[in-house]
Amino acid sequence: MATQKGKKTVLKFDSEEDVSKALAKYTADLSEKFIKQKGSFTVVLSGGSLIDTMRKLVEPPYKDSIEWSKWWIFWVDERVVPLGHDDSNYKLALDGFLSKVPISFSNIYAINDKESPEGAAADYEARLKKLVESKVLPLSAISGFPKFDLMLLGMGPDGHVASLFPSRPHRHEKERLVTFITDSPKPPPPRITFTFPVINSASEIAMVVTGAEIANMVDVALGNASPPDGIPPPCTEVSAEEELTWFLDKDAASKLQTSG
Ligand SMILES: O=C1O[C@H](COP(=O)(O)O)[C@@H](O)[C@H](O)[C@H]1O
């Protein structure tokens, strides 16, 4: 197996509005590239502030130029609540993004909200394996795990990504594609999440991070500062096979300016 990993780019913008514009162009360009290359575009969403920052993608010119029928949608993590619940990452994306563009309903992979956290994780993993069998998802030649085209990730002030939290052991899971947690330190407690082997097998990853409250953790994530407790948080473990691109607004990047 090949062992080479991709590069890292850090983009800083004057405002969250500028991050939103740049993220829309970046996503539209990747959509065009992957659809030309392989006829489809597999996109993994997060919850949180990301969905609002994606707002420019559902406005002209992208709303009309993107080949939405070729998109496949997944979630890097999901709260185990009914899909119509206000805590659901699916509902957040449906209201803010998916209801505004013509992505085929059969290409949208929400969790099974009738299952327990353990059952929902096993069900999601089984559905990903079926998509590998049907060749919708290739396997990474580096890791052997399913390889998504683009993951759009956020980060919490504690350095969590997806639902992989600093103080929880499932951040170290190396075998499963999808795991679960019943005691998330951030509510709601029951969640499922992609594991790092799957996250880090993506071709492209965008880390979309805005706001001053996250500035110290951005400094840690980018290796300019040590973690307060000396233990590297999950955000320091993210890497992509082609390119990891950080989208930061001025506030999120404010601690980086002194350190370069
Ligand atoms: O709970 C979650 O938090 C993270 C970060 O959210 P943000 O609002 O600080 O951007 C998010 O990426 C994840 O999907 C979500 O479940």
From TrEMBL:
Enzyme type, top EC level: hydrolase
SUPFAM superfamilies per the UniProt record, alphabetical: NagB/RpiA/CoA transferase-like (SSF100950)
Matches recorded under InterPro entries: 6-phosphogluconolactonase_DevB (IPR005900), 6PGL (IPR039104), Glc/Gal-6P_isomerase (IPR006148), NagB/RpiA_transferase-like (IPR037171)
Glucosamine/galactosamine-6-phosphate isomerase domain segment(s): 15-246
Enzyme Commission number, as recorded: 3.1.1.31
Pathway field: Carbohydrate degradation; pentose phosphate pathway; D-ribulose 5-phosphate from D-glucose 6-phosphate (oxidative stage): step 2/3
GO terms for biological process, alphabetical: carbohydrate metabolic process; pentose-phosphate shunt
Catalytically driven reaction(s): 6-phospho-D-glucono-1,5-lactone + H2O = 6-phospho-D-gluconate + H(+)
Hydrolase in keyword set: yes
Keywords, ordered alphabetically: Hydrolase
MF GO annotations: 6-phosphogluconolactonase activity
Family: Belongs to the glucosamine/galactosamine-6-phosphate isomerase family. 6-phosphogluconolactonase subfamily.
PANTHER family: 6-PHOSPHOGLUCONOLACTONASE, 6-PHOSPHOGLUCONOLACTONASE-RELATED
NCBIfam families: pgl
Name under which the protein is recorded: Probable 6-phosphogluconolactonase
Organism whose genome encodes this protein: Solanum commersonii
